[in-house]
Amino acid sequence: MKKTIRDYNLENQRVLIRVDFNVPIENGIITEDKRIKESLPTIQYALDHKAKVILLSHLGRVEVNEDMQKYDLMPVAERLSDLLNCDVKFVNATSGNILEDAIQSLKSGQVLLMQNTRYEDLNGKRESKNDPALGSYWASLGDIFINDAFGTCHRSHASNVGIASHLPNGIGFLVEKELNAFQPILNHPVHPFTVILGGAKVEDKIEVIENLVTKADQILIGGGMAYTFLKASGIFVGDSLVDENHIDYCKNLMEKYPNKIILPIDSVNAKEINENADSMEHFISDFEEKEIGLDIGHNTVKLFQQYISDSQTILWNGPVGMFELKPFSNGTKQICELLKKSKAFKIVGGGDTSAAMMRFGSSDWVNHISTGGGASLELLEGKKLPGIEIINEK
Questions:
Q1: How far is CA 158 from each of CA 57, 283, 345, 358, rounded to the nearest angstrom?
Q2: What is the side-by-side order of every strand in the sheet holding 266-270?
Q3: pTM value?
């Protein structure tokens, strides 16, 4: 079991907290602040225990100098000040005397946010490639390191693995919540256990399928990836998205687990992809030339309902259609409605899936929504996360 922020006496200690403030910003305005809010319990705990809090976060990909203004963390500092109801000192630097002096002047119960850690990527990708000197330098600014950025735990960066290599460390409440939510699914799910997988490409989900197919009672396949499975079954799918390199994989998987892989039986199709497209619904045996499959049909929703209604545990990763466009949104909307009625333990991973839920109402009916798409995917693949592995054991 990993150490947590609770395992340390924080009073008068410089506590470096890696948070995930990678939020959407348009014209200097934060358009969605869920990730900031998710970090508040850990930050507030440190402040309540009289720590000197130093926050590190990335924002976007900083590859050229012009990206610095676009991915400036100043708006985040202002929003965080409002949420914490206290002054958040913002330092427009990731190193140097200005940053060091600001940290030196911090008092217990105060919080400082340094500039975007990926500004360091302009100098040979020092952050993203876990430059040893950078990790050591950032560690020298603190006494304790807490990783509460689940969304980057699958990456070995200077601001997580690098710092943790040099300081007493632990995880924050958000990372703890994420791990506690996933462990039952990965280790001892309550059956019947249903996995709903969507998204575009089979390639992106192969390792998830491999890790979960032996644990789940069934995997319901939707989204663009469904048409690769359908073609592997010998069905003509028109001009639908097909991952040609993985047709044999899909065929072998269905032969090995014939009762676990559940495919659509009808499809909402169109000959063009746009908001005003003329759509038609066919059984999957009735595809016409040039048609593109873009959503599951109502008969597939009824088929999936049979499994969802009987489930005790449900994992959903990936929309089952191109929900962003109204003609192809109904399948994903209906899955939301089915899950809302289900009394199963429900966990959702992936930014597109959570975005779909918010588009069609709320997410109050989900037990857990992961804040890290890539990290949650690698957990579901059975991989170790570098940002977690480096943390000290109790």
A1: 11, 51, 36, 33
A2: 280-283, 266-270, 292-296
A3: 0.88
Range of the domain at 276: 189-380
pLDDT in tens, 275-309: 988 999 999 999 999 999 999 999 999 999 999 99
Same domain assignment for residues 154 and 234: no
The dihedral of CA 198, 201, 203, 204: what is its sign?
A: negative
Instruction: Tell me the catalytic residues.
Output: 35, 201, 351, 374
Q: Note whether residue 119 is domain-resident.
A: yes
Pairing of strands 52-56, 29-30: unpaired
Dump pLDDT digits (tens) for 305-359. 999 999 999 999 999 999 999 999 999 999 999 999 999 999 988 778 878 887 8
Surface-to-core class of residue 299, CB atoms within 10 Å of its CB (0-12 exposed, 13-18 middle, 19+ buried): middle
